[in-house]
Amino acid sequence: MNNSFKYKKYGNKSKVLIILPGWGDTRKTFDFYINNLKDKFTIYIFDYPGFGESVFPDNDLTIYDYALYIKKFIEEHNINNPYILCHSFGCRISLLLIGKYRVLVDKLIIIGGAGIRRRSIKRYLRVKKYKFLKKVSCLLPKKMRFNYIEKLREKYSSSDYKDLDINIKKTFNNIVNTDLRKYLKYIYNPTLLIWGENDTATPLKDGKLMNKRINNSGLITIKKGTHFVYLEYPFYILKIILFFFN
Questions:
Q1: What are the φ/ψ torsions at residue 46 (nearest 5 degrees)?
Q2: What is the rounded distance in angstroms from the CA atom of residue 153 to the CA atom of residue 168?
């Protein structure tokens, strides 16, 4: 597992900033922020298994595996009360680090955070239909089954899921099916939530829920922003980050 995580260190200041990117993103996604923050902090940023320079292990993982790795990294590097900046999937790790494993964090910034699993009738019916159609495949001749199932997966799988290698798909399922809202009430450090108004991957209502359940938190909504608001408005988000952390 340790060999599955590659990280990069920038800067050499006393205050540590840990950046946890979104699913599928790499260290390069945050180049703008690293270049503008490395003179103020010591920065650690990771490539998750299967992305960037990190290879995926032979077994599937859960979100708890990711969080425990980062926890161990913090302990082994004697990092005390770091700042954390996370986007999307990185929020899942942060919620577990602080809310479950009680890692002490000074301040936390969440951008378009994932971790709230919502059950909708539409999604439920879609999953049921997919499972039913998949069972029907047993009625087909063997030589037709593979193509039939592949077409079903192509039609009913999300774009994120379709782009994954086969050995990462089980991990993806493990992660998206884990609801972490129960850990929100255990986060006490100052937390800033930044959300794009038009975020469809992690909708604004998730940000509002986190804001309601995290005691010491505030929510900034960026008009016309999407899930990648930090790439769309980099200078504005950078100003917010500097103001909050300083």
A1: -120, 150
A2: 15
Residues in the chain: 246
pLDDT tier, 130 (very low <50, low <70, confident <90, very high otherwise): very low
Strand partners, 44: 9, 18
Give residues with Cβ within 8 angstroms of 245, minimum separation 6. Answer: 17, 41, 83, 107, 109
Helices of type H across the chain: 31-37, 63-76, 89-99, 121-136, 142-156, 159-162, 166-176, 204-213, 229-232, 234-245
Q: Domain ranges in the chain? A: 2-117+178-245, 121-171
Instruction: For 14-43, write each residue's pLDDT tens digit.
Output: 999 999 999 888 888 999 999 999 999 999
- pLDDT > 90 in the chain, percent: 64
Q: Which CATH class is domain 2-117+178-245?
A: alpha beta
Residue-wise pLDDT for 151-196, tens only, equals 655 654 555 555 566 668 888 888 988 999 999 999 999 999 999 9
